[in-house]
Amino acid sequence: MPVVTGNFRDITNGSLDSKEGIVVFTLNDTNLQVGGGLRPDNSREVAPDPTTGDFSINLTQTTNMAKDAWYDVSVKWLGSDAPLIGRLGLKIRVPASGGPLDELYDLAGVGGGPNRRIVWVSQSPPSNPYPFMLWLEQEPGANPDPFDSQNTSVLYEWRP
Fold this sequence. Notes:
Blueprint: E1 3-7, H1 8-12, E2 21-27, E3 31-33, E4 37-39, E5 43-46, E6 54-58, E7 71-77, E8 84-92, E9 99-100, H2 101-104, E10 119-122, E11 134-137, E12 154-157
Parallel strand pairs: 1-9, 10-11
Antiparallel strand pairs: 1-6, 2-5, 2-7, 3-4, 7-8, 11-12
């Protein structure tokens, strides 16, 4: 399994002095991993080193799943009577090589990575499609000819 590393202080922009925190990685949806079977949408947790804030966790690769997949990253604060969950709005995609957390979030489109849900609208397919790209077989523009036989309005999705 790929190893994801990071530092708690980078996530929270603070220290570990006042509260204990656990970093939580939750798969966005139940999915099928190509060649690896069903992956439930469960959570994995890691406790950072209390002195340095460093952490390391084995996560399932998301870049080879049948549906678009990522992990939501959150923090579970344990310093109160009931744990509080801090949602970060951070999504990461995990390649086979794993890597540092601050490099994986770009793969989820947060920092300019690929948006896999863009729709190509044309009467001809894209010349270089990527996995999960959509193609609407339709004449682009404001006034497509409804009687043109090439305007099928069929939506295709490329699968790896």
